Amino acid sequence: MMEAVRVWLTSVVLVSVLLSAAQSLIPPGTVRKAAGFTGGLILLLVLLQPVLGADLDRLALDLSDYQTAVEERQAELADTQTEAMASIIAEQTEAYILNKAGELGAEVTVRVETRTGEDGVPVPWSAELAGARSEALASALETELGIPAERQVWHERNTED
Length: 161
Description:
- The protein is about 60% helix and about 15% strand.
- It contains four helices and three strands; from the N terminus they run αααββαβ.
- Helix 1 (about 1-25) runs antiparallel to helix 2 and helix 3 (about 65-105) packs antiparallel against helix 4.
- The protein is rod-shaped, with a radius of gyration of 39 Å.
- It starts with a helix and ends in a 6-residue tail after the last strand.
- This is Stage III sporulation protein AF.
- Keywords: Coiled coil, Membrane, Transmembrane, Transmembrane helix.
């Protein structure tokens, strides 16, 4: 690459020197103007030689690797977004269950697991509760949140110390 640049610069300098010498030897007038115009075209051709002689087929860009990388990054971002949304939904669902338990007079701690639904949005899937089992709360989880009894795990804890 550097060799090609060196050869190109050398040819530009040599043509410029030759054209200057020829310009100074030609007497003023129309011939000098025609020679100046012709010399300018020759210098332009020498300057554009790398572009005119470029093998454009060799320069064909293979963008498939970049396209694949972009698609992979988009998938990573979508997964990250889904994970963040699942985390928020789990936290909000846990807060709702704790609030509902408080309304029903039950003391529980809760952990909610989410799964991605058919539409790609995370939904509450199961609930793990620690505390005295409350049928009213279990029923509310099933009817209001769509978490059936078989996906509710209750850990009874002894409240007497």
